[in-house]
Write a structure and sequence with these properties.
This protein has 96 residues and is mostly beta strands. It has a domain at 32-82. The chain is 4% helix and 34% strand. The protein has one helix and seven strands; from the N terminus they run αβββββββ. The protein has one helix at residues 9-12, and strands at residues 32-37, 41-42, 48-49, 52-57, 63-68, 73-74, 77-85. The strands form three sheets. The chain has a three-stranded antiparallel sheet, with no helix packed on it. A two-stranded antiparallel sheet has the order 1-7. A two-stranded antiparallel ribbon has the order 4-5. Strand 4 and strand 5 (63-68) form a beta hairpin. It is elongated and about 95 Å long.
Length: 96
């Protein structure tokens, strides 16, 4: 009658959760990695390399190499030769 404990204990016990149906585990769709971000660059001539250098001659006649950091385009996405497992794979793999 307005108090917190006014209902009988029999009425409270009837609210048990229904059992859930069993669902088999499913592998995520992004389990395999097919492409990766390339680590090389294209220069203005279309050459592909990790780093580019150019010869620079100073006023006293010395020739040195200077790394080129401008005018380069990133290689972009590269297809992998063999699919690989995603590093954040939530599945446990076991080989017996």
């Amino acid at each position: 009658m307005g108090l917190l404990g006014s209902k009988s204990s029999k009425e409270q016990d009837n609210h048990e959760p229904a059992p859930r149906p069993y669902k088999a585990p499913v592998a995520p769709s992004n389990l395999l990695v097919l492409h990766r971000l390339g680590s090389q660059f294209f220069d203005a001539d279309g050459d592909l390399a990790h780093e580019f250098y150019e010869q620079v001659s100073s006023a006293d006649g010395r020739v040195t190499m200077r790394r080129v950091t401008h005018g380069l385009r990133h290689q972009g996405m590269v297809a992998l030769e063999h699919p690989r497992l995603h590093p954040d794979c939530p599945c446990v793999m076991l080989m017996m």
